[in-house]
From TrEMBL:
InterPro entries: Ig-like_fold, MetI-like, MetI-like_sf, UgpAE/MalFG_permease. Belongs to the binding-protein-dependent transport system permease family. It comes from Streptomyces sporangiiformans. Residues 1-20 are annotated as: Disordered. Residues 86-442 form the ABC transmembrane type-1 domain. GO terms for cellular component: plasma membrane. This is Sugar ABC transporter permease. GO terms for biological process: carbohydrate metabolic process; transmembrane transport. It is found in: Cell membrane. It holds the Pfam family BPD_transp_1.
């Protein structure tokens, strides 16, 4: 009857008392509150109480026995270590989210144009299944300084050696009976000059015979008779296992040094050069007559060992690279989901109007994906503010202070041997205050999207 009266324009049915009203979904408020009670209890116990206790504990000293007010906060902004942590945290917030979001956007757009896009997305997303601890261990090995162990330096050294010659005798030096003397910059030059008909003997030491590369042949003494006025000589290792032999003379069993560059120098200018052969011998043209012999520093330069990835300068960028490797898949999946909802007619219309692919991407695709990009960026900004695991695992102890962040300082101050829970609580509250503006922006964005 009440529904018929309402349809006929008559008076509506009786309104229930305020205390017995139901929600739009037909549930009484106290029933909804009863179901929410467990979640509210957990929220209070795991979030509200720890925040309140940390704020209260930050006003006391290390053992909690004395009230110090805001002294712990003052120490945060006057201590060099915490100021370094603040600077590094700012670098993380400014660089890491933008880098990961850009990589995710590039991957999401490009994988739409290849047939094996799904397989590529699976590979890029796979690191998300790895814990921060495992990723830290992996990249600690990747950034190992020794090229034989670290993948990054193995690649760098391989590329470097492809374009620059590397020495195979980095520890070699002239023997005491040699006429060669140090001439600066790592080179060795003979005191006297050479002449045709007189063999040039250049004995070296400083290398164990069993450490020579490529199983070298025995050295051969140069011929005393010069060939058409040329200068001949030998560069060899003037030492053999077991000892014996005459110093400064090529003895049986002594090894040749292949590939040594020999220069003839007159008045500071190189007039001729040659490289030793398999038996250590070399021959210089007539123009070398009367010149000094020099072994350039390139023969003895230490081998290139790559980049010091975990040194004071590059440790933070290196760790950010490891973070990007882990989280690029997360950004790619979210952005690809947003890209799937983009109206393709808009992209085709832009192409019909004469826009090239770069213009379509920059002026159409990116603006349409702006809400998704903001979600990814804000999520990553909150995530990097509490970054801890990667820095703690990857950065070696000598450079950990250069890579430290607020979360790591908070851990070290409280549990890492510092035992100062007052300072640790103050750092935790500061982290919370830094996260709040980002959370506020995210909440406002969510409300605006609901109003649409």
């Amino acid at each position: 009857m009440s529904s018929q009266a309402a349809m006929a324009g008559g008076p509506a049915g009786p309104v229930p008392p305020a205390g017995k009203r139901k929600s739009v979904m037909g549930t009484r408020p106290w029933v909804a509150g009863l179901f929410l009670l467990p979640a509210l209890v957990l929220l209070g116990a795991l979030v509200v109480y720890p925040i309140g206790y940390s704020a209260w504990r930050s006003l006391f000293d290390a053992d909690g026995s004395g009230f110090v007010g805001l002294d712990n906060y003052g120490e945060v902004f006057t201590n060099d270590a915490t100021l370094t942590a603040v600077k590094n945290t700012a670098i993380w917030v400014a660089v890491a989210p933008a880098l990961v979001t850009a990589l995710g956007l590039i991957f999401a757009v490009l994988t739409e144009r290849v047939r094996w896009g799904t397989a590529f997305k699976l590979i890029v997303f796979m690191p998300m299944a790895i814990s921060m601890l495992a990723a830290g261990i992996i990249f600690r090995l990747v950034y190992e300084q020794n090229p034989d162990q670290g993948v990054a330096n193995a690649v760098v050294v391989g590329v470097h050696d492809a374009f620059a010659d590397s020495s195979v005798y980095p520890n070699a030096r002239p023997s005491q009976v040699s006429d060669l003397k140090a001439s600066g910059g790592g080179a060795f030059t003979s005191r006297g000059t050479v002449s045709a008909g007189t063999p040039a003997l250049l004995p070296l030491v400083g290398i164990a015979p069993n450490k020579l590369p490529d199983d070298p042949a025995d050295a051969k003494a140069p011929t005393a008779k010069a060939e058409a006025g040329r200068i001949s000589g030998t560069v060899w290792l003037d030492f053999k296992l077991g000892g014996g032999g005459e110093k400064g003379a090529v003895d049986a069993g002594e090894k040749a040094l292949k590939g040594i560059k020999v220069e003839a120098v007159r008045d500071g200018k190189v007039v001729a050069s040659a490289s030793t052969g398999a038996e250590g011998t070399f021959t210089l043209p007539k123009s070398a007559d009367g010149a000094q012999l020099r072994l350039p520093a390139a023969n003895f330069a230490a081998p290139y060992n790559g980049i010091e990835w975990l040194g004071p300068t590059l440790v933070t960028p290196a760790i950010i690279g490891a973070y990007a490797w882990m989280w690029a898949g997360f950004a790619m999946v979210l952005i690809a989901a947003g890209l799937a909802g983009v109206d393709r007619n808009l992209l085709e219309a832009a192409r019909v109007d004469g826009a090239n692919e770069w213009q379509v991407f920059r002026r159409v695709t990116v603006p349409l994906l702006a809400p998704v990009l903001v979600v990814v960026l804000v999520t990553l900004m909150i995530n990097v503010m509490k970054i801890f695991d990667l820095v703690y695992i990857i950065a070696p102890q000598p450079t950990q202070d250069d890579a430290t962040v607020l979360a790591l300082i908070m851990y070290n101050a409280s549990f890492g041997g510092g035992g100062n829970f007052g300072l640790g609580s103050a750092l935790g509250i500061i982290l919370l205050l830094l996260v709040l503006p980002v959370m506020f922006v995210n909440i406002r964005r969510l409300r605006r999207e609901r109003q649409r």
